[in-house]
Amino acid sequence: MTPDPAAAAALRADLAAAGYTADAVRAAWGRLADEAIGHGLAGPALRALDAAAAGGSGVGAATPALATLARLLFLGVPAPVASVDAALPTAGSAGLAALGLAAIEGDVVVPLALVRPQEYVESGGAGEWWIASDLDETALNVRGAGGTLPTGHVLGVGGASLTLAGLHLPTPALRVLDVGTGCGIQALRARRTAAEVVATDVSERALAFTRLNALLNGVDGIETRHGSLFAPVAGEVFDRVVSNPPFVITPRAAGVPEYEYRDGGLAGDDLVAAFVTGVGDVLAPGGIAQLLGNWEYRGAEDGLDRVREWVDASPVPLDAWIIEREQLDPLAYAELWVRDGGTAPGTPDHGALVEAWLSDFAVRGVTAVGFGYLLLRRAASGTPSLRRFERITQPLSDGALGDHLAAALAAHDALAPLADDALAAETFVVAGDVTEARHHLPGSEDPSVIELRQGGGFARVIEVDPALAALVGACDGDLPVGVLSDAIAELLDVDAAALRADLLPRVRELAFTGFLRRARAEGPAR
Length: 526
Prior knowledge:
It is a single chain. 40% of the residues lie in helices and 23% in strands. The chain has 20 helices and 18 strands. It has helices at residues 5-17, 22-38, 43-53, 64-74, 81-87, 92-98, 137-142, 159-167, 185-191, 204-216, 270-278, 303-313, 330-340, 350-364, 402-415, 420-424, 466-474, 481-492, 496-513, 519-522; strands at residues 79-80, 102-105, 108-111, 113-122, 125-134, 173-179, 194-201, 222-226, 238-243, 283-298, 318-328, 366-378, 387-391, 428-430, 434-439, 449-454, 461-464, 516-518. It is globular.
């Protein structure tokens, strides 16, 4: 069912007029309360909002309207009809009920869902959406309904959602497919650079939230379809596919809840494997898929080697850039996802659920579970040119990575066809976020270690030798790298041809990883 566009537009206008933004809500209850909410504790925030609603000073001196909306729509706490009608003068409590977001019980409005402001950052700047989703664990606890989530729960915007949204490539696309859309956050993000988005999910409830969230934010061009993986779009192709799929590895055992938002219904990491091997069929030549996923380490087998096997098994040739961000041992993984479902340590079911996970892992000899980012591209020429499987575990900046990924792909596509002689004729400049660190032993004139450090992107730190450090330092967009290499060879009194053969592959790597940028792509050197 499609929500009433007029009711959604009225609610959107009221939320904007009330100043219902993420910054305003945080200011209304203060830093400590905001941190407590992240731990599932709403008490400090409610006390601050109660003071504001009563006309008191409050932490942030929020207006009564903002305080009412934060209680009702952010925390999921019932509120008097009179207060809600005052806070939403156009939509009113009746408008919330018409959209399925609340029920009116006597003179009280009881929220049935949350509507939270959600900030986003992209290359064009920052913005904000209002995202409706099911009541979360914190809201259920405040209401005394217990913290265990129903299996059909539609998740709001979590850390994984924001991670994937930040990975979206900023380059324009005609058609984008969002597989497993959930509340629709990836579809909204994709629509900012795409003419058309198709959002799919196995949950009709999730698709209803996606339609509502598109209306709440005045976004058109998003079509919803019901079904699993690529079945709803069989025979169609897309320029881009994005997915935060239900990749969580869940035991197929009695008594273990199967949450639609995180469990794809397959054993082990088969869901991610099915995505990787099948996505090529729905990608146009040169089309790119971006997703998050888990993969198992079984016995002595490396988890990234498992992903490599999936890529190789695709009937459609794929470029692949796979980045593992973390590994968890089986116990830590089990405890993470048991707790995610609302079953806290010390409760009667916690131990049994953790044991179910451990038994499931033991059957397959799982020693660890990897998590990371997958970027797959249908090879336009039919022959893959990019195969990169790596671990990047260092902390990253808060900025979106989509621009960095796009720049890396552009550098690869520009330089991969070039033979070394052609590469030697290219000029480069050092990226603006790159710094150099030299480490000296006490009393030593020459450095024992030279490092190049990247301030943005993946925050890489690489150790370089004096020759490469000299070449990078000389890359100002003036002279080609071949000329620079020959000059450095003369200074170091080494064979020029041998030094070129050593440096040029590393120049390719530095260009891909963002330490160097092609001068012709940067514009005239200054």
